[in-house]
Specification:
By secondary structure, this protein is an all-alpha fold. It has eight helices and two strands. The protein has one domain.
């Protein structure tokens, strides 16, 4: 009895791990890190989940989420420009967009509710408004960002893998979350706290990936399978090893 062909799970996991690395780098290093240096400060802590700067201003704090939004925009542009046949590259672009946009949206809601984090610090310093105004507005903005992002990502997933979008996104969500937590476990001062933070930033924030696409959605024409790629898997292993040894452990 023959079995229907399936998407290669190892390749999907590899692509999801690379997307997680890009989203994390965009927030912590490219976002916070570059803003700190531009502000004339020096980086005093840089890990996959924690950042601090000697000149920690509202703009430096806001640069982390801005890095995520920039990565999400670049992922959206790549998704539109890449050829239909480049299915693995298109999935990477989609996952970078998803993890980055959902991180920015989820963190906004969290920061407004907890009165803590990048957005809260930036709001306190940059907005000449009482918290009773900007906190509810921030929650609403976060929910809108979730809604808009979810619609775009669901549409993109259907275009890439058709009716198989739900299981592909589920596999990617699991792989990205596990990768983020494993890397954070190398943070020696407090591995437990770092692992929890990584789970919040990647797994919890991007949980809509589990519900975006109904299993019985009808999509035509049939999308090509994601076949096994030793190159993508090798690239993911190399990048993850470098990521875990640097941002995972903490550079400073």
């Amino acid at each position: 009895m023959s079995h229907p062909a399936r998407d290669d799970q190892a390749t999907i996991c590899a692509i999801a791990a690379i997307a997680m690395i890009i989203a994390t780098f965009a927030h912590e290093a490219a976002g916070h890190g570059s803003a700190c240096l531009i502000a004339g400060g020096h980086i005093t802590q840089l890990t996959s989940v924690y950042f601090d700067c000697s000149a920690m201003t509202g703009l430096v704090a806001l640069a982390g989420p801005a890095g995520n939004l920039a990565a999400a925009l670049l992922g959206w542009l790549a998704l539109r420009l890449l050829a239909q046949a480049a299915i693995r590259a298109r999935l990477l672009a989609l996952l970078v967009m998803a993890l980055s946009a959902f991180w920015a949206a989820g963190y906004l809601i969290y920061a407004m509710l907890k009165r803590h984090g990048d957005y809260a610090l930036a709001a306190h310093e940059l907005l000449a408004l009482p918290s009773q105004v900007w906190r509810p507005a921030g929650v609403i903005l976060g929910l809108v960002l979730y809604w808009v992002s979810a619609r775009m990502i669901a549409r993109g997933a259907r275009q890439i893998v058709g009716a198989r979008a739900a299981p592909v996104l589920r596999t990617a969500w699991v792989a990205a979350g596990i990768g983020a937590v494993l890397a954070a476990a190398l943070y020696r001062p407090d591995p437990g706290g770092a692992m929890v933070q990584a789970a919040l930033e990647i797994s919890a924030a991007s949980i809509p990936l589990l519900f975006l696409v109904r299993r019985n959605v009808v999509v035509a024409p049939a999308a090509p399978l994601i076949t096994c790629s030793a190159g993508w898997i090798a690239a993911a292993v190399i990048l993850f090893a470098a990521f875990a040894a640097t941002l995972g452990r903490g550079i400073v």
